[in-house]
Here is the input.
Amino acid sequence: MYSVEIKHDGLHKYRVIKGKDRFVVHQKAYVQLRQWDEMWDKKQEAERKKRNQQNAAMEKAQKKANAEQQTIDALNELSYIDNTLLHTLDIDDKIDWDSLKDVSRFNEPKPHNPNEPPYPAKPVKDNFLPKFGLLDKLFTSSKEKKLEASNKMYDDAVKNWERETDKLKSKYEKEFEEYNNALKTWEENRNLFQQAKKEKNDAIENQKTLYLAGESESIIEYCDMVLSNSEYPDYFPQEYEIDYNPENKTLIVEYILPDISDMPTVKEVKYVATKDEYKESFLTDAAVRKMYDKLLYDITLRSLHELYEADAINAIESIVFNGWVNTINKATGKKENICILSIQTKKDEFLDINLKMVESKTCFKNLKGIGSSKLFSLTPIAPILKINREDSRFVDGYNVTGNVDEDTNLAAMEWQDFEHLIRELFEKEFNSTGGEVKITRASKDGGVDAVAFDPDPIRGGKIVIQAKRYTNVVGVSAVRDLYGTVMNEGATKGILVSTADYGPDAYNFAKDKPLTLLNGSNLLHLLHKHGHKAKIDLKEARLLAKGKL
Here is the structure.
C-alpha cells in the first residue's frame, strides 16, 4: 500500500490518500491539491470581493445594490443547502476513467535546426590578371612587377576568403553542436514526459481493470473517487473512511458531516441609508436547526445514491453509512468526534425509492436508520457497524482449544493461552453471523484483549472483550474499567469473561449499561457449546500460584 499525506493550511484541510498503485495515489493527490488550490483561490477572491464591496463605492445607490446582491447570494446559498439531495439526482455518478487520464501534450518547443550559412565564393585567379600596355610589352621588368602585384592581390584575397569561410564554418559547427545537444535534451525530456504519462495512464487503466475484476481494494478506491467527485460547499468537511467486505458485499462508510456551526445563517442584507450601514437579518435558531437536520439526512441519502448508482459492476449489495461530527462539547469545551446517525441499506430496496419526491428524514427513518429525532442535539449513538481493520494492536491468533480437555484447569492456564482461548470461543460464536474476532497484543494492562465485529444490524457493531483469569471474586473496579474502555473504543458493547464469579456491586454497576458479565460457569457452558470440555478449580489454581502443588 502507498499513502500520501496532503494538507492545505489555508483551508485547514488534511487527507491521507491510500492505494495499491503509487501513480494512482499521486495522481489522486495531485487532483485533490489542485481542487483545494482552486477552492482557496475562490475563497481568497470572495474575501477580496467582499472587502472591495465594503470599501469601494461610497455612494448610497451602489451600497444598496451591494446589499441586494448579498441578499441574492445568501438566498442562493440557502437554496443550495436546501437542494443538497436533488443536486445529485440528474448527475451520472459513475467514474469516467478516461477523464482521469493524462491527456496533456509535451509543450516544450523543439530546438531549431540552424541553417548552414552561404559561404563566399573562392577568388578566381583570372580576375586578378593584370592588363598589359605597350610599355609592359617593351620592358620585361614592368610586366613582371604587374604580375607580382596581381599574384599578391590574389593570394591576399584567397587568405581572406579562407579566414571568412573558416569563421563561418566554425560558427555553424558550434551552432550545430549546440543544436544537437539541445535536441538530445529535448528528446530525453519528451521521452520522460511520454513515459511518465504512459505510466500514469497505464496505472489508471490497470486500476480500472482491477475494479472491473472486483478486486476489493480497487472497489474501495473507486468508491473514494465517487464521494470525492460529489460537489459540496467549500466549508463542508467532506472527509470519510471506506471499508469493503467482499464476503457479503457490504460497504462501510465513516463520513464526517458538517457541524451546525458551519451552517449559513444570513437570509437578507439591507443598506440603511440614514445610518450609512448594512443590516443583516438571520435565520432563527429553530430554522437553522431544521435546515441542519434536513441537510444531514440529505447528505446521507445522497451519498448512498451516489455509491449505488456508480456501482458499475454490482459489487455492492449493502451499505452501512455512519455520520460523524467533529464538534465542541458545550459542557467541557473540548473537541469531540461523535457518531450521530447510522443506517444500513440494501441496494435493491434503496434504488426503488424515488428520491425526488421523498422527505429525507421520513425516508431515513423508513429505512430503519438510527439517530436522535433531533440531530442538531448531537446525541451520540452506537454505529450499526464500524470496522477498523487497521488497528495496529491486532495480532494473529493461535489454536488453544485443541489442547483443552476435561483435565485442563482454565483458572491455572497461562494468561496468554487463556486470552487466545476466549478469542477462539467468540470467533466460533460470531462465525454464524459473518462476524470476526481479533485479539490484541499481549499487554497485561487490563485494556482490550479482543475485539469482535458483529455485522448484525440490530445487535451488532464493535464489541470489546476482556478476559480475566481470576481466582478470586471480581470486584466492581474491573467492570468500571471495562465500561471506560467501551466508551473510549466507541464500541457498542463490552463483555467481561472471568474464571471466577462477580460480586454484587459488579453486577449492580453493569445492569443498566451495555455490559455482559460471564463467570466461570458461563465460560464452561460456552466451551461445551462448541464441543470442548474443561474444568475450573479455583482452589487448585491458587495453590499452584503459591507453589504449593
About this structure: The first helix runs from residue 22 to 55. The chain is about 45% helix and 20% strand.
